[in-house]
Amino acid sequence: MNRIIEYKDDVSLVVCGAAGQGIATVEELLTAMLRLAGYNSYSTSEFMSRIRGGTNSTLVRVSSKRSNAFVDKIDILIPLSPDAINHLKFRIGESTTILGEERNIDVNLVKNSQNIIMIPFTDLAKEIGGSIYSNIIAVGVLAAFFVIPKDILIRHLMERFSSKGESVIQMNVKAVEKGYELGNDLYQSNKIKINITTEEIVKNNIFLSGTHSVGLGAIAAGCNFLSSYPMSPSTGVLVFLSQKAQDFDIIIDQAEDEIAAINKGIGAWYAGARAMITTSGGGFALMTEGLSLAGIIESPMVLHIAQRPGPGTGLPTRTGQEDLTHVVNAAHGEFARIVFAPGTPEDGFILAHQAFNLADEFQVPVFILTDQYFLDSHYSIPNLDLSNIKNKKHIIKTDRNYQRYKLTDTGISPRGIPGYGDGFVNADSDEHDEDGHITEDVHYLRPQMVEKRLNKKLKLLRKVAFEPELIGDKDYEILVVGWGSNYSVIKEALETIDRKDIAFLFFKQVYPLNPKVVSHLQKAKMTISIENNATAQFAKLLHTELNFSVDKTFLKFNGLPFSVEEVKKYLEGLN
Amino acid sequence: MLDVSNFDMPADTDIAWCPGCGNFSILKVVKQALTELNIKPEELVIASGIGQAAKTPHYLRTNIFNGLHGRAIAAALAIKAVNPSLTVIVESGDGCSFGEGGNHFLHNILRNPDITHLAHNNMVYGLTKGQASPTSQFGFITPVQVQGVTNEPFNPVALAIALDASFVARVSISDQENAKMIIKTAIENKGYSFVDILQPCVSFNKINTWKWFKENTYYLEETHNPKDKVEAFKRATEKGKLPLGVFYVNSKPTFEDYLPTYKTNKDPLFMREANLSGLKKLIDSMRK
Known about the structure:
The structure holds two protein chains of two kinds.
Chain A: E1 5-8, E2 10-19, H1 23-36, E3 40-46, E4 53-63, E5 76-79, H2 84-87, E6 97-100, E7 116-118, H3 121-128, H4 134-145, H5 150-160, H6 166-188, E8 192-195, E9 206-209, H7 210-220, E10 225-228, H8 235-248, E11 251-254, H9 258-270, E12 275-280, H10 281-297, E13 301-307, H11 324-329, E14 338-340, H12 345-362, E15 365-371, H13 372-375, E16 378-381, E17 396-398, E18 416-421, E19 426-428, H14 445-464, E20 469-471, E21 478-483, H15 487-495, E22 502-507, E23 509-511, H16 517-523, E24 526-531, H17 537-546, E25 552-555, H18 564-572
Parallel strand pairs in A: 1-8, 2-5, 5-6, 6-7, 10-11, 10-12, 12-13, 13-15, 14-15, 17-18, 21-22, 21-24, 24-25
Antiparallel strand pairs in A: 2-4, 3-4, 3-16, 9-16, 14-23, 20-22
Chain B: H1 22-36, E1 44-48, E2 63-66, H2 72-82, E3 87-93, H3 94-100, H4 102-111, E4 116-121, H5 156-162, E5 167-172, H6 176-188, E6 193-198, H7 210-215, E7 217-219, H8 229-236, E8 242-249, H9 255-258, H10 276-285
Parallel strand pairs in B: 1-2, 1-3, 3-4, 4-6, 5-6, 7-8
Antiparallel strand pairs in B: 5-8
Helix pairs in contact in B: 1-6, 3-4, 5-8
């Protein structure tokens, strides 16, 4: 075979196999080793809702410039199971190099059979100690392509498996060495060339997932109570904060159901905690009555909602942006709320932190609306800035005359908590008077309380709303609108095409919106909303909130994220 | 010693109960019990759900969390966990405690928070005008159960014993003195203390009346050993007249006892700040 393929500045590696074959381990080890060698990397995985078997894949992008978006293209593919090639056939291109063994490569599905390099992973692994080590050999091969120093490789591997006992460590080391040797041979013989610039600064980067970013933001805000029922893809936040609970004094309660989870969260705020729940669409559906309780008793609450495609059980481990309308409108009755939708891990951190402080200040529920794609992606970032982290507890010491729902000009009544001061703190889910006792005064108190909970607060919330970020030339003619996890994909697509007439307006706060936003939209000759749902939910929100109608929509709702290529092709076709 | 008037609401407070309702007696007894236990109204939270019984906290001066139907136990667990120095009592009816809130009743007994659950049990839905409740007796005719109830009546005492609740008792509000004594013991007990309070509904339950409760209840003998779970369960599932008294006591660590949050620092959560230096270390550990 006389071929030389050079991958320059950006290479996408995909490892694909069955659940239980250690695909996630490859992702974790490889990205960690790449970072230690100074490479920018980003990874994301797609997987089936099962613990063993099926076909899962992980994408690792290594690039000269930080790129945090999903791409369809596969430059180097390692299929570890017979179904892998079929699973990825739409993404295998003319220049995809495939490294693997005969039983896992159906040549009929490969566009360019010259690009197949046979490596008998299973046989080699068995020689070392069992087929289980195939994935570690793959790590070794890929590491060699990036000339990651062998000592970094081995040291990291030994640390990673340090708790597994000496013999397991040794077999893993042997496996990675074997892979490294094979990869190095291929690299030296110029069969594969990779040309990516490393950066010294990357070596000190923070390595985190979207899940971690939300969890870290909560810790920054002093979150000290989390009650939740496990549900993909939201469970990671529950697990992460449970792991850190002892270090950060967080009370963790795995609730009996989501109804309990939110009622516990609200009870916790009532008694002085900073509480959060984490769930997905179906679990949130069960929480809507509790959300309404937070609305009427004016309780702060922080809700992390991790979207996955529905309805019903839908696609439990896939991604989508189908719950925006639900989150903005859920619950009976009318009251104010805030909805954030982070696009980057930095956003995840800042918005989760802000969620607690805004919830506390305005006594409203605040949502952090993410999705599987955002949460399960792993990012390498320079820093999370703690210098601007400030927390303010909006709790007062009560006196004898304290009234929980005192009518004020702003609509905000100072919030007391039971046991702190001489007053009584009465929270009541009935319509109530200023003391928090049941009232049916429909002529005066009821309208006053509605004004307070809804209009007065919304007015304040609109003022403090995060403004959208404009990416691209200010003199745009076409404006693409996006929110949440589509940030990086749309941004990269726009940056890689030569269209100065197109700009991108990104919303990390999707509700409520500052009315000033409309001027950005009106300036464009054409506006397009790009969303991971079938009904353009954000476009509808722009209409109800700002009375603005977008001209076009570009929607995807099959459970997978947009790829850079898809968006690029769409944008290039615009005129 | 505090005076019971400490818990009194202003005299002009509009009380939404029917004249002659058993809730009046329960309210009186609870106030007396709290006073005799020297519990300050400022350091007490009464959580409730929805229903006539759930309005009780509005009729005494203290901190109240009148939340959603069935959800009071969930909120109460959190309130106690967040500030263990508070005395936390749940007061709600049979529909709230066992119907809508059944799952919370079950699972939070297992958690064993140090709260007291006073279930007002009148065997009927009052506020919705007379439908069956989970505890309605077999054959009880209502506008909905027109041929009479065909469900087995829910037995909260037996269930609480089966789940190893920390304290399980039944009282009848027709005997206020004994009801008060037992409620006091329940509040003093550390752990999930459940008291099934039998009470009449004068408007919608014409079967289980003041008279019926007098004639169809009796006290467990003084020789009853509340530490004997099997015996307690046996007594709780007897057919015929309903035994009153303390069925079961089981001292064990509480939900709060297990929380690492209070191992070295006893401050309630509202007194604590975010641990930013710890966070910095955590973030730096993610550079490896």
